[in-house]
Amino acid sequence: MTFDLQPALSGDLVGVRPLLATDFEALYQVASDPLIWAQHPATDRYERGVFQEFFAQSLSSGGALAVTSPAGHVIGSSRFHGYDPQRSEVEIGWTFLSRAYWGGQTNGQLKALMRDHAFGFVERIVFLVAPDNWRSQRALVKVGAVRAGTRLNGAGRDNFVFEMRRSTFSTQASGFLEHNHGAAAVPPPDLSNPRTRRVFPSAWPSATDVAR
């Protein structure tokens, strides 16, 4: 069975579909907000020329998705990348959402839709996050990812690896699942874990992740 890297998925809060060349203006309207990129390595991605290059790379990646509101408006983007059937692994990254959708359950449902799709094909989902991007790290913990070492990114810099595993995630979540705006809720971070407390010493704000 072939992994569809650009599926059309929908929940009652958010949906995804393949990113199209005609989505540029709508997506740039979201991305032109400098605060979205404040903790991202590419802090200038809100500039039109910089974003044009990013958008072109997204289209050529073969895994880029437009994130849409229930009304069908483009509110962000995400991507499946690096599908490895031998390792049974895929990366989810390059995610950003309009700040109008931060602080609620939109990012959680987005990740749940992409997670459930990916777990139909792979055992492990990974997310790469810059070490100083606390917003992304907190957002990933909020949706059930756990820290799992480091890995070099495409620029040769160390990134933190967060992961979800199908075998442990379903078991871990089974005692916590509830219907949550059309997507399964995930258990909260384990604050009794010393490693978790070191990485996330403060409260758990709701925010989208901008991992790549």
Automatic annotation (TrEMBL):
GO terms for molecular function: acyltransferase activity, transferring groups other than amino-acyl groups. It comes from the Bacteria. Residues 14-167 form the N-acetyltransferase domain. InterPro entries: Acyl_CoA_acyltransferase (IPR016181), GNAT_dom (IPR000182). This is N-acetyltransferase domain-containing protein.
